[in-house]
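Need Histidine kinase's 3D structure for a figure. Predict it.
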Amino acid sequence: MRALYFSSLAMFYWSSGRIAFFKRQTLEAEKRQLIIEKDNAELEAQLANSRNAYLQQQINPHMLFNTLNFIYNSAQKYSDDAANCIWLLSEIMRFSLEEADPDGKIRLDREVEQIRNLVAINRYRFKEPIYLNIELSSDLSHYKIIPLILLTLTENIFKHGNLTEITSPALLKLITNETGQLTFYSRNLKKSKNARQRKALGLQNIRLRMDSFYKGNYKLEINEPDEFYELTLILKL
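Structure prediction for Histidine kinase:
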């Protein structure tokens, strides 16, 4: 009788252990399924957002550039500066609407051309002189890059930087070496502290794009010594 009791007790514990084991397995499987469903839902939401963004951008380019051309011709009668700004802006917009090559990239010198256009626009924009020193490698046509990354980083200099101090000019360097490594470096006085959140969002988007194309082959660093803001992007093209 005692042996039967202990046998029954052992069987009970063994059965309880097996039931608990299978229950844990079931719960883990359900958890994995929930994670998969959550990931799928997030992917569906991202896809829907991408589709929506794509549809919002379906402006007829011919209509857009015909309108800009009309505004350009009209502005010439009143202000050469305004007309030139419109022309430069249309060049940047034309570039942003261009299709990239099948690998998703464009020639580096095309991006640099738009950086020059953006700098020229901002020289027209400000009533005060802006102080920005630019250093570029001489030949950039041999390399390719995903579009609008460097242009966006350059835009941030004007959006968030103070370029009106002659004693502390902003600096933009874009250098390539013989191994195909690109270094983009910018340094400028800070304009205000309340722009940090918007700047962080823009940089987050850049990091997402860089991770998609260059994961493990780039380094993006930010340094903020006192009143200055420094950004360094090192990229294997």
